[in-house]
Amino acid sequence: MPLATRRNIGQLLIGSFKGTQVPVELRSLAREFDLGGTILFGRNVEAPEQVSEVAADAEALGRSRPAWVSIDQEGGRVARLKAPFTIWPPMATLGRAGSEALAVRFAAALAAELLAVGVTLDYAPVLDVHTNPRNPVIGDRALGQAAESVAGLGRVIVRTLQDAGVAACGKHFPGHGDTSADSHLELPLVEHPPDRLRAIEFAPFRAAIAEQVAFIMTAHVLVPALDAERPATLSPGIVETILRQELGFAGVILSDDLEMKAVAAQYPVPEAAVAAVRAGCDAVLVCSGDVDLQAQTLEALVRAVESSEISGARLDDAWRRLSRAKARFLGRPRPSVGDRQRALYDVIGRDEHRAVAEEMAAFL
After folding, report:
1. Domain edges within the chain
2. How far apart are CA 105 and CA 108, in angstroms?
3. H helices then E strands: how many in the chain?
């Protein structure tokens, strides 16, 4: 296989690492495959200055174009950046406040702090409609219990993050709000008929698509009304037919972490990656920090392209969408690491940001 094709395949992986520095093994993998990006977790975070440095190193893992530096910074219990960064309340507070103006102030402050340390992609907002109070994984991460409210606030957050220069990612399609299982541990079941899904679960995603959200993340859920056999992430009927064609999403479709038990209990990660890309995902997340597993995943994608299990047209389509997103967000001028670090404490945890967090916290 030509080196250029292997590097295009590398763009499909958003990988991860252990520790507070980019390991030599991941650098070696990036030299061969030109990685699409990395995701930062709490294990990678020590201090703001260190995050800024590791983000610069992670971005440089992309050879032909910068790699994404991504993170789950939602607020509440899903926030990898702790104090002295602003501590954001859960997103349910924005839903209770019912104020788009407050959502704008929150997203603008969030974007400023992410950009201050070099993060370019945030896996937010959560667009799941929280209709099941026994849901163990979404809960107060959701913006609300009504589709209209989640859609309105979600699109405001998408617009504000992206206007500031941070790519947003709506999650988790086709909807994880009415489940009673945690997809990190097992495969949840969504038993609604198609009409209900289109009216409730899809509504916030339609709004985000209208706002030109850069990424949409798939859910590891089984929706028998749409596909009785495969989790949504691996389902062409859900990913390609509904999200891409019916809803008209033109951006990047990203799998949730393929090491989550909802998928990994049945499908080895390399096999799941191939199935996800075949289904229409443009990129996949592999999040434990096991570089050997990430290498195996990329080699499985290489073999799938060589055997035409993944068509050349499917690879080219994914690569073009990823390239457009990078041109949109990573092609604009940005400050150097040194300039970022000199201004770091003028941005993170600043009084104006804490004031927004306190206003949100009044609705806990």
Report:
1. 3-361
2. 5
3. 15, 10
Q: Are 48 and 117 in contact, with CB atoms under 8 Å apart?
A: yes
Q: What is the mean pLDDT of the chain?
A: 96
Strand 13-15 versus strand 121-122 pairing type: unpaired
CA atoms within 13 A on the CB side of 276: 36
Q: How many alpha carbons fall within 13 Å on the CB side of residue 208? A: 36
On whether the CB atoms of residues 38 and 61 are closer than 8 A, the answer is: yes
Q: What is the pTM of this model?
A: 0.97
Only one residue has tokens 């501590």, namely: 87
User: For the segment 105-147, what is each residue's pLDDT rounded down to a tens digit?
Assistant: 999 999 999 999 999 999 999 999 999 998 989 999 999 999 9
What fold does the segment set 3-361 form as a domain? TIM Barrel (3.20.20)
3-state secondary structure of 309: coil
Nearest to 9 by CA among 303, 328, 307: 303
Q: Does the structure show a pLDDT above 80 at 1?
A: no
Q: In angstroms, rounded to a whole number, what is the distance separating the alpha carbons of residues 363 and 226?
A: 36
Mean pLDDT, residues 157-183? 95
Residues assigned a catalytic role: 184, 256
Our CA angle for 253, 255, 258, nearest 5°, is 165
pLDDT reading at 55 higher than 90: yes
